[in-house]
């Protein structure tokens, strides 16, 4: 066993912990199907959800961790439940009223309100794939419509008909009495209208593989359970899919966790071993409410990528997946800077620490070098004090601070400068509020201004920070009151960067001029 594999077998990072659980399934030998199967599920009832990205990103991290500790081949399936009936009309699509007549039809039978694809389901699947492809995920896309209609699910559906009583017994225990009277694991698709019907099943013929039911008008129908003529209710579908595909690992949100025994039970009744599971905490918006496709609260993938890199979003997803996290615009700068801090730390870390580092998992072990010689939070402050409208304004400061840097040699820094300008103009500028200094703050700012004007040493962030500290220590207890004053008086913000670093990048004489403006009342 190589040193890296040995270290990985003991690594504490959560992707390795999950990978070892998956590997334990095959202690006695590799799977008969020849690979380990990871799956993520997607309900395409609306436009793709950033949580879906999180599922695929995190599952990929576990998959790559598994490949570090095992030579068994792996696959990742992204499964779309696009045969589900459209239960309600989304309110964030063109002409929602035009969809009303298609309620209860499978999403792949509902016209695309955007007019671009074969159906609404195809449209949402394409949006999902576009997002996933933007991140370079390696996955196979499965459509429930194709899975049912192609016959790929037939063997398990026939087995479900044979074991109908056992499956119903399990499901009925989870339902209220009123629901028990009409419930069936099978939902027939109406032979004429194509709608998914929630009607009682009068008879299941296991030998013939058919179900008999009355439609809403009281007409009796008998249809095969195979070939896409029926679909399974969502909980039985979950477990049956595991059984049909031989899924070894699937993660899902905490809101599914109470259903885990049901999913597992379905899979076992159908004769297969349930996969390993991982339940993650939900994402919250800035008000602490669960983000939702239908509400449109929280951040979308496109919104995050307007203001920050794909890697910063992956970094956010890596952090504490079992802790609920607020997912809104204010988390973006922190994620950007912390991601690059970890990139810079990685080359000098021993193997054991590298395996714990988020960037190992974000980049599947092929970790790049950071070119961010100026932190993202600093770029935001530069954009703020210069009222930057484009990234070239920021490059004026960057070139003076780091003459070796250019957009060509530091593309990640150039990209970040563009993000910073957009973020500043959309979020910082509208809420920027300067205040006048107090008498004590005015005294300290005057001394700082004079010391900076007299400074003839190198433009070194640490040396300049020492000056800032020395001025503040004489007057402020706690010292953070001094830094808060600097941010609020000079930058119009409640928090900011290490101020010595800011002076080094913005310029000593420019900072003197900025303090003069504040003292003259030109900012507040």
Automatic annotation (TrEMBL):
A motif ('KMSKS' region) lies at residues 290-294. Keywords: Aminoacyl-tRNA synthetase, ATP-binding, Cytoplasm, Ligase, Nucleotide-binding, Protein biosynthesis. A motif ('HIGH' region) lies at residues 44-52. It catalyses: tRNA(Lys) + L-lysine + ATP = L-lysyl-tRNA(Lys) + AMP + diphosphate. This is Lysine--tRNA ligase. It holds the Pfam family tRNA-synt_1f. It is found in: Cytoplasm. ATP binds at residue 293. HAMAP family: Lys_tRNA_synth_class1 (MF_00177). It comes from the Bacteria. InterPro entries: aa-tRNA-synth_I_codon-bd_sub2, aa-tRNA-synth_I_CS, aa_tRNA-synth_I_cd-bd_sf, Lys-tRNA-ligase, Rossmann-like_a/b/a_fold. It comes from Rhodosalinus halophilus. GO terms for molecular function: ATP binding; lysine-tRNA ligase activity; tRNA binding. The keyword Protein biosynthesis applies. PROSITE patterns: AA_TRNA_LIGASE_I. Its EC number is 6.1.1.6. Coiled coil: none annotated.
């Amino acid at each position: 066993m190589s040193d890296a594999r040995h270290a990985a077998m003991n690594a504490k990072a959560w992707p390795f912990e999950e990978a070892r659980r998956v590997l334990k399934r095959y202690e006695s030998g590799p799977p008969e199907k020849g690979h380990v199967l990871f799956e993520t599920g997607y309900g395409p009832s609306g436009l793709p959800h950033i949580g879906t990205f999180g599922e695929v990103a995190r599952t990929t991290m576990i998959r790559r961790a598994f490949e570090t500790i095992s030579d068994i081949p792996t696959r990742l399936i992204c499964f779309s439940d696009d045969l589900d009936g459209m239960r309600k009309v989304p309110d964030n699509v063109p002409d929602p009223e035009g969809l009303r007549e298609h309620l209860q039809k499978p999403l792949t039978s509902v016209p695309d309100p955007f007019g671009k694809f074969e159906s609404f389901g195809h449209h949402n699947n394409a949006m999902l794939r576009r997002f996933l492809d933007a991140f370079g995920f390696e996955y196979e896309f499965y459509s429930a419509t194709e899975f049912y209609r192609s016959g790929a699910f037939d063997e398990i559906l026939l087995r479900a008909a044979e074991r109908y009583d056992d499956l119903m017994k399990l499901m009925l225990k989870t339902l209220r009495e009123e629901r028990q009277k009409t419930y069936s694991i099978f939902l027939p698709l109406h032979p004429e209208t194509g709608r998914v019907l929630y009607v009682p099943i009068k008879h299941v013929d296991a030998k013939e593989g058919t179900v008999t039911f009355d439609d809403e008008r009281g007409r009796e129908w008998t249809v095969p359970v195979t070939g896409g003529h029926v679909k399974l209710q969502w909980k039985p579908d979950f477990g049956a899919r595991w059984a049909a595909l031989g899924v070894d690992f699937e993660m899902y949100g905490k809101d599914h966790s109470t259903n885990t025994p049901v999913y597992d039970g379905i899979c076992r009744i159908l004769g297969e071993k349930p996969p390993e599971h991982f339940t993650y905490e939900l994402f919250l918006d800035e008000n602490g409410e669960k983000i939702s496709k239908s509400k449109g609260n929280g951040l979308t993938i496109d919104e995050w990528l307007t203001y920050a890199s794909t890697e910063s979003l992956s970094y956010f997803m890596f952090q504490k997946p079992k802790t609920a996290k607020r997912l809104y615009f204010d988390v973006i700068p922190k994620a950007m800077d912390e991601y690059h801090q970890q990139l810079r730390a990685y080359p000098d870390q021993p193997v054991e620490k590298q395996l714990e580092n988020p960037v190992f998992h974000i980049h599947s072990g092929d970790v790049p070098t950071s070119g961010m010689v100026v932190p993202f939070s600093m770029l935001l402050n530069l954009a703020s004090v210069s009222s930057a409208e484009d990234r070239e304004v920021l490059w004026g400061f960057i070139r003076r601070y780091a003459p070796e840097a250019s957009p060509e040699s530091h593309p990640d820094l150039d990209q970040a400068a563009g993000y910073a300008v957009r973020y500043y103009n959309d979020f910082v500028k509208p809420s920027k509020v300067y205040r006048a200094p107090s008498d004590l703050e005015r005294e300290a700012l005057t001394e700082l201004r004079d010391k900076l004007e007299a400074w003839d040493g190198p433009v070194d962030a640490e040396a300049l920070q020492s000056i800032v500290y020395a001025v503040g220590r004489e007057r402020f207890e706690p010292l953070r009151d001094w830094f808060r004053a600097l941010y609020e008086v000079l930058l119009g913000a409640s928090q900011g960067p290490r101020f010595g670093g800011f002076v080094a990048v913005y310029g000593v004489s420019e900072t003197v001029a900025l303090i003069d403006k504040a003292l003259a009342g030109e900012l507040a």
